[in-house]
Amino acid sequence: MQRILTVLALAILLLPAPHMSKPEKVLAGTLLVTAHALPLSSVDPGLRRVGSLTYLGGWELRSDNAGFGGISALLASPSGDMLGLSDSGILMGFHVGPGDGRGHPFIAPLPIRPQDRYRPWWAWDSESMTHDPATGRYWVGFELQQAICRYGPGFSRVEACRTWPEIYAWPKTGSIESLTRLPDGRFIAIGEMGMTADGRHDSLLFAGDPAEKSTPAPMHLRYVPPRGYRPTDMAVLDERHLVVLNRRLTVEQLFTGVIAIVDLPDRLTPGAELKARTLARLAPPLLADNYEGISVTREGGRPVIWIVSDDNHEFFQRTLLLKFTMD
Questions:
Q1: Using 50, 70 and 90 to split pLDDT, how confident is the model at 150?
Q2: Are 193 and 173 in contact (CB under 8 A)?
Q3: How many folded domains does the chain comprise?
Q4: What is the CATH number of the domain that holds 154?
Q5: Across-strand partners of 276?
Q6: Residue 121 Cα to chain centre, angstroms
Q7: What is the rounded CA–CA span in Å between residue 6 and residue 15?
């Protein structure tokens, strides 16, 4: 019975509602984060291989700053500088690994347009983030508002926001969990609970900037996750592949995660399937948690996959950051 009650409590935490554990107000400032290294397996500390991936390292992240945590999106750099975004609209910059990194650790709320200042603090349910390194701009997907906003370099200001009827058709409690910018300037968004008639996850391909009014209506695609899982984030691996992070919550194992790869065809047509192939499954006794953010970097020509978990600002969950490489 205790296990069932725990599962029910965790299921409630997945809803983008105003939780008492979330900080109502976070001030901009310096962020101190400690990183405790962890083995991949609790029964085999030497395990380095899971599925098609090799484990390069993992850390439990902690901070005395009440605003730290709840990370739902992640952008990583090869130097170990991390930019996390919580589901309360809070940016967190920190460094993990050897060296001092290039940036300064910080925490700060997302900038807000004057016309949006009336919105309550819990309405900024930011669940996805992507970046254009050429211009320095960022895009954020908001689940409750079902909007996509573009920000200037360094998140200096809000440049544009747009809502779409195609996204309004998705449930507010399972909307823009996944958003990425393709190398050619197109964008893909996947609905966590926005389903098609055949049980696939409705996905939208934008020909251009989804925050701009001039961008035409998106093309519908269909994401096919590993059986029993739902997508929580995605990132570009290369011009022909995406990596997608998927989550499941069950009574037996609580949270488990799957890192999957999607082959992109030369030409995407309406209704095309984005079929996931499992790279690695993270379930007990491996490090398993509420994984919600994924990012890709490169080291020595090899792709490196980073994932991060959302602790929902609860004492019984953790912020885990894991690092893998592919053959």
A1: very high
A2: yes
A3: 1
A4: 2.115.10
A5: 262
A6: 20
A7: 15
Residues 6+ apart with CB under 8 A from 49: 55
The answer to whether 264 and 240 are in contact (CB under 8 A) is yes
Whole-angstrom distance, CA of residue 262 vs CA of residue 273: 10
Cα separation of 318 and 249, whole Å?
16
Q: pLDDT of 55-73, one tens digit each?
A: 999 999 999 999 999 999 9
Which tens digits make up the pLDDT trace of 2-16?
A: 555 555 555 555 554
Q: Residue 238 and residue 267: Cα distance in Å, rounded?
A: 15
Contacts of 252 (CB under 8 A, 6+ apart): none
Do 173 and 16 meet the contact criterion of CB atoms below 8 Å apart?
yes
For the residues of 200-240, what is the DSSP string, one character each?
PEEEEEESS-TTSTTSPPPEEEEEEPSTT-EEEEEEEEETT
Give the global pTM: 0.93
Amino acid, res. 250: T
Single out the residue of 11, 6, 3, 7 nearest to residue 174, CA to CA. 11
CB atoms within 10 A of CB 69: 27
- Evaluate whether 65 touches 32 at the Cβ level (below 8 Å): yes
Provide the β-strand partners of residue 238. Answer: 241
Q: Which residues constitute the domain of residue 79?
A: 2-326
Encoded tokens for 148: 């996509």
Question: Using CA atoms, how far apart are residues 26 and 124, in angstroms rounded to an integer?
Answer: 13
Strand duo 219-224 + 273-282: pairing: parallel
Extract the tokens encoding 123: 């309405």
